[in-house]
Fold this protein.
Amino acid sequence: MTAASMTPQEVREQVERLGPWFHNLELMGVRTAPDHFLGDYPAMKFRNFAHAIPADLSGKSVLDVGCNAGFYSMEMKRRGAGRVVGIDSEDLYLEQARFATAVNGMTDIEFHKISVYDVASLGEKFDFVIFMGVLYHLRHPLLALDLLREHAVGDLMLFQSMLRGSREVEPVAADYDFQEEEHFDRPGYPKMHFIEHRYAHDPTNWWAPNRACAEAMLRSSGFEIVQQAEDEVFLCRRAEIMDGEPRAAYPAR
Ligand SMILES: C[S@@+](CC[C@H](N)C(=O)[O-])C[C@H]1O[C@@H](n2cnc3c(N)ncnc32)[C@H](O)[C@@H]1O
């Protein structure tokens, strides 16, 4: 029996077997995470920034990094993307994504167990990369951005991070004297909060940047911010690295 020919009851049983789900998908009338702590997630969030993504992705290649159960991968397929690849480090989420796409008859979306740190192993640059909700789960977030810029992003990247602290953004000077300390305490200066233990009961939350920091990290890794699509969501374009120095030193495997 293929997933596409399942009855709603069989889908419900599979959804239960594959839980817990982070993405609340609707599969043949069955909700995968109806009691999500963020509400109807991520559909609710997507509605706030969907306008920033090209409505027609015909012929474009898309890479969804940290794809989870495939919500964004499927949305990009619905926009006509030619090739859609989802990667995640967790087997359970990949299994969910494969099941959800099978139920929705979208079996041409590929899912692979690849960490963002190993993104070079795909050996391909994509027109549109989605890097949503992953940065703050990484112990080495800047390395991930550098690697994405170096090996995966051909043109656009949709980026989201949990942000904490001030939403103010002040211009950053090219340099400061050693005796100058005051700017470090200004709310609009880039800051990354390190989470030694847990935040929101989740041991995989390692970092919480303020907005200035998220923007500065993107610029420093060679991305131009084209549009702030939502409070935490930035549409970026691959750009020149400002000082021309190579960033990602991690070898392609
Ligand atoms: C908060 S969820 C975000 C899911 C989805 N991108 C979204 O925005 O709704 C974080 C996802 O990143 C994945 N992840 C965490 N570390 C990763 C890594 N090193 N490489 C790839 N995916 C990772 C997790 O398994 C999880 O599916």
About this structure: Residues 22, 42, 65-66, 68, 71, 87-90, 93, 115-117, 132-134, 137-138 surround S-adenosylmethionine (CB under 6 Å). The longest strand covers residues 153-160. The chain has a mean pLDDT of 95.
